[in-house]
From TrEMBL:
InterPro entries noted in UniProt: ATPase_dom (IPR011579), DUF234 (IPR004256), P-loop_NTPase (IPR027417)
Pfam families from the UniProt entry: ATPase_2 (PF01637), DUF234 (PF03008)
Keywords, alphabetical: ATP-binding, Nucleotide-binding
DUF234 domain ranges (all copies): 314-404
Naturally occurring in which organism (per UniProt): Haloechinothrix salitolerans
Name of the protein in question: ATP-binding protein
UniProt superkingdom: Bacteria
Domain ATPase, chain residue ranges per copy: 18-208
Gene Ontology MF term list: ATP binding
Length: 460
């Protein structure tokens, strides 16, 4: 299966492997939540090399993990290694020192996947790796890759107080694919179809590969989300469980946000708990993002939202009715949640439009010093897409709607009103509209209006 995207990550890992082959040992750390493609990327790196790939398992004893690691060495490196081994290693220090000796005369790539699962009461696995690296790794042709899906744990290992702080030569965090990059998984879909596919699947490669281009959007949703055992129905708890202990109230916070609570006080009120630590951990793991309005004249009070489009879909549309879907009532649930589903698509469309404008800035179609985001003033106005220049004046202001009808002159008048709130009297922004129906008539009649459809978002 073709490896799509991840060009930066592939270049970094390939360069590290080349350095290790020249006798410059390399320690790499690759982390990101489940399903983002870490294993696929590292398997691609290991293909055709002298390598060992080991995946730690949950709840196994250290003795059992070491036995499994010994078995992987024998299976993947063959008889020459078997002759050097008398039995399972007594501890992980002995195991790591052994693979270092194997790399003294011939390059060796060792991947330890789900490394946080090797933490034990005896100590942090990162501390052990760091100690071995400092005391026993010199000029071996060794590349050791530690990978993990427990994002918060991995970042603690790499942080100022973690065992791996400033030790790796390569640190790569992998997040779900962005809207624009994910389009490469489903090139046969038109813009409208892809917006809906991405709204359901998010940027997860497995989800996108399972989306059938031979079926309609409704048929894909019926199969993947609204059927017992459907991939999109069951995958969210698996992704979250790797990183979050539900006893910490994380689910209550995410449920509150999916229900529309965006301010810290509102989230705490709906979750009925203190949320400072919980919200901070969710942010560090990438499940929640903090959003501030851009521009000097905007309110600085931040808002919070679920930062993963698939998980936002699951919490908003599927979670509360999961038992009904598992009880084979998915068709009824799908009809009952149509409004919520369309509202979710609208949020995805807004995010994709902001990415579209960032690409316009990068491509030189807008001022190169423009920054892109959202703008709002509490109880006054809110703008979906806003690009602000260095002089703090808007260079583009836009609105998004998941609608088939075209934008009207009234929509343009309203957007011009908002522009007056954002910039000074000399501001002369472009006004942009994104929807299924577009705003071609407005664009034809006004030189400062731009009209975009979903096809423009995916460069179809």
């Amino acid at each position: 299966m073709e490896l799509i995207g991840r060009h930066r990550e592939r270049r970094a890992l390939a360069a590290a492997w080349e350095r290790s082959q020249a006798g410059d040992p390399q320690l790499a750390v690759v982390w990101g939540r489940r399903r983002v493609g870490k294993t696929y990327l590292l398997t691609d790196l290991a293909e055709g090399t002298r390598s060992v790939y080991f995946t730690a398992t949950r709840q196994d004893s250290e003795e059992r993990q070491l036995q499994r690691f010994t078995d992987r060495l024998r299976e993947q490196l063959g008889e020459t290694v078997t002759d050097l081994m008398t039995g399972p290693f007594p501890d992980w220090e002995a195991a790591l020192r052994f693979v270092a000796r194997l790399a003294e005369h011939e390059p060796l790539l060792v991947v330890i996947d789900e490394a946080p699962r090797l933490n034990s009461a005896a100590g942090d696995f990162g501390d052990l790796v760091s100690a071995v690296w400092e005391n026993h790794i010199r000029d071996q042709s060794l590349m050791l890759v530690l990978s993990g899906s427990a994002v918060a744990v991995m970042e603690e290992m790499l942080g100022p107080h973690g065992g791996l702080h400033r030790r790796p030569s390569v640190e790569l965090r992998m997040d779900p694919f962005s809207f624009a990059d994910a389009a490469a998984f489903l090139p046969e879909l038109n813009g409208e179809e892809f917006v809906q596919a991405y709204a359901a699947c998010g940027g997860y490669p497995l989800h996108l590969r399972r989306w059938s281009t031979g079926l309609t959007v409704e048929e894909n949703l019926a199969e993947m989300a609204f059927s017992p055992g459907g991939l999109l129905l069951r995958d969210a708890p698996d992704i979250l469980s790797e990183d979050l202990d539900w006893r910490g109230g994380y689910e209550r916070v995410l449920v509150a946000m999916s229900g529309g609570a965006r301010r810290r006080s509102r989230i705490a009120g709906r979750a009925q708990q203190r949320i400072d630590y919980t919200l901070d951990r969710l942010r560090k793991a990438g499940y929640v993002r903090q959003v501030r309005p851009i521009g000097a004249h905007a309110s600085a009070d931040p808002m919070y939202e679920i930062g993963d489009d698939y998980l936002a879909f699951w919490f908003a549309v599927l979670r509360d009715d999961a038992d009904l879907i598992e009880g084979d009532q998915g068709q009824a649930v799908r009809h009952r949640t149509t409004g919520t589903w369309h509202k979710h698509i609208g949020r995805v469309l807004e995010s994709a439009a902001r990415d579209h404008v960032r690409r316009m800035v990068a491509d030189g179609d807008l001022s190169p010093d423009a920054v892109v985001g959202r703008w709002w003033q509490d109880e006054v106005a809110e703008v979906d897409v806003c690009a602000i220049g260095a002089d703090e004046n808007p260079v583009l202001i836009g609105e998004c709607k998941w609608q088939t009808s075209a934008f009207s002159r009234r929509d343009l008048v309203d957007l011009r009103r908002k522009a007056a709130l954002i910039g000074g009297p000399d501001a002369a922004p472009l006004f942009a509209f994104w929807s299924r129906g577009g705003a071609d008539d407005l664009a034809a009649a006004n030189d400062d209006v731009r009209s975009y459809t979903c096809d423009d978002l995916v460069a179809r």
